[in-house]
Structures are given as structure tokens and as C-alpha cells.
Amino acid sequence: MIKLLAVIFILLLYSIGRARGTITLKALCFNIAVLCISIILMSWGWDPVLVTFPGCLIICYITLFYQNGKNAKTLASFSAVIVVLILLFTLSYSIGYMSHLSGVNEIMRNEDEIAMLSPDVNINMSKIAIAVILTGLIGAAMDASIAVSSAVYEVYKNNRDLGIIELFKSGIHIGSDILGATVNTLYFACLGGSLTLFILFKNYHYTLLEVINSKAFCQEFVDIIFSCLACVLVVPLTAIIISYILSNLDQFENYLLDDDLYMERKYDEE
Known about the structure:
The protein is an all-alpha fold. It is built from 10 helices and no strands.
């Protein structure tokens, strides 16, 4: 069944996306390879957080630049996501240890798949939980960022007289619309993935206080909060960066090899 679903996904991706769909599939394979390498390095005893951070940067680079080329949109998104990742890296590290998060919660320990496995794996599970947070927020941040930068790019493309302030205001207005849908998407994704968890809480007659203090709930809640924080922070950052880049295209000529606006301006000057 899994193979059948994979085949259907690939066929639909190619039939609808054509060349871009093929590039998207290649990028997905590269990202999966990065995650596999990260897992292998962690199993060898490498620090999970130090492995995850550069891994997220590589995934972000592949997703943005390999799929969409080097242009103002991807440059702004990549820069904004890096800043957000650095800001939330320190915060997630502190929250993870203060909350005593671990990669395996009290409910997972009793599942048949891992109940008989030895917990002595010589890996700091709190750092695994932080790695999970970082990996989860990178996707949400990229999604919101590229949406804002692409929209502002199109606004500027149709009105070249707009300045930095006008472009930034447009980015904020666009971002505020995107945030509502993105936050709800993250919420329902978390709720759908944790539906069984909430049913267990209900069947075992957990009180509200016990639910809040449960590691299983806390881990899910922290994951979604950090993803939402990433989306909120990345919107104004992306709006600022894309506005500055579009107003100063000549300063970024080495990073705009595939940018239509820059190539058009360069052609007009010649």
C-alpha cells in the first residue's frame, strides 16, 4: 500500500508539475538523504543539536535555491529563515532543558514497538527533542517566508516605483493574511497527529492538570508553538529583506543569477 501511494504521488507530481515537479521530487530525495545522514551521525554519538542545525540549513538551501533558483525571492527567504533559526535555536535549547523534554515520552515507552528495547542508547534524549523542534519549525518558516517574498516580488514587478517602505507595508499586509492560514494548518496538523494521544487521555481519565504536565502533551505543544513562532517572526523579517533587495538589486548581483528583474534591468542598461 505504501508503494502504491508513493507511485500515485510521483505520477501526480510529474503530471501536474512537469519539469518543476521533477525538480521538486529530486529536492525531496536530497532532503531525505540529509535527514538520513543526520540520523546516522546521531547514532554514532554526534551531538543531535549540532547535527540538526547545519542539517536544517542544508535542507533550506536545497528547498529554496535548487527548486527555485538564485533570485531575490529565494535569497530573502533563505536569509530570513537563517535569522529565525538562530533566534529560536537558543530559545528552544533553554525551553527544552527547563521543560525536561525527551525524545520518548511516558506513553511511547509503553508501546509494543519499543517496550522491549533497551533505553541505554548513549544519546541525550533532551537534545533529540530539541532537534525535533528545529526540524519541525524549518518547514513552517520556509513555507511562510517564500510566500511573502514571492508576493512582494510580484507587487514590485508590476509597480517599479514602489520604495522600501511601501514594499515592506505590502509584505506585512500579505503576511498577516498568510499567518492565519499557516497557524491553523500547523494546529490541525498537530491535532490530527495527536488525536490518539487525546483519546488516551480521555480513556485514562486524565485531569486537565495531568494533561498539561504530561510529557507527551508538553512535547506536542512545544513543537507547535515553536513552529508558530517561526512563522510569526519570519514574516516581518522576510518583508524587510525582500524590500531592501528589490530596492538595491545591483548590490546582490552575485546572488541573482536566475532573477528575471535583475536580468531585465541589466539587459536594458546594455
